[in-house]
Amino acid sequence: MEPxxxxxxxxxxxxxxxxxxxxxxxxxxxxxxxxxxALFSAPIEKRKERWLQQLSEVVVELGARVDELTPERLVQxxxxxxxxxxxxxxxxxxxxxEKLEALRNAVLNAVLSTIEEDEKFIFLRLIDQLAPVxxxxxxxxxxxxxxxxxxxxxxxGWSMGGVSTVIEHCFPAxxxxxxxxxxxxxxxxTEGLVSQGSFAHVTMSGSGMLESRSSPRxxxxxxxxxxxxxxxxx
Length: 234
What we know:
Elements: H1 13-23, H2 29-65, H3 71-74, H4 78-92, H5 97-112, H6 117-129, H7 132-142, H8 144-150, E1 160-161, H9 163-170, H10 178-190, E2 204-205, H11 206-209, H12 216-224, H13 228-231
Antiparallel strand pairs: 1-2
Helix pairs in contact: 1-2, 2-4, 2-5, 4-5, 4-6, 5-6, 7-8, 7-10
């Protein structure tokens, strides 16, 4: 598959939608539309180009992993096309690398995973709604010990303590900000991604502090937003 061109048409759906909405504002449509074109046309175009390049790479990767999986066959897959459309809308609204990576992997796993169709679209909604801190903390809670090894964070050798102690050790920006990570955990629990209960501040053994807190659904979600081939590399 040839690389996508660096220059693209100005017929950008996001821009056209915004232009149409602005034009409906009484007495202010004209000036607002001019301001929108001047300020946001180039950034939106750049986001679209970067995302389309990522999609191109995903299509190439799928062809390399699955025999005879050509772009022509992919566009005949209604689920894949719908996932691409929804992921693209989310991508244009975001700039955070964690969310863009999750979207890229979701498109990849729309073909490779065995997750049910409805669950794929629910997981896309979660990528859209959750903040990067939710994704980071979910990955951490899935296997704190492994997370620490991957990120080069030493284990002080806790004999007793709470999960909150491990969180603040691994995420210095959250130190002393219990209200922040407690809210993130509650959000993840609401979506059924981590185990229920107030485990963060319960005193437990050192091994208990590093136990997985993700739910089966949380692990399925992480699998959907992860490139499993890359995660298996040493």
